[in-house]
Amino acid sequence: MNENEISKVVFESGLKIHRKLGIGLYEAVYEECLVYELKRKG
Questions:
Q1: Would you give the DSSP letter of residue 25?
Q2: Diameter of the chain by CA atoms?
């Protein structure tokens, strides 16, 4: 996987989380969700 592919996965995962949870949560919550999503995607 090259840098562009990794960036795409991270960006799309972050966008998915933002769309589901919205704004206003603590950064730690978003971080945990991102870790979960990235682990799911391998």
A1: S
A2: 33
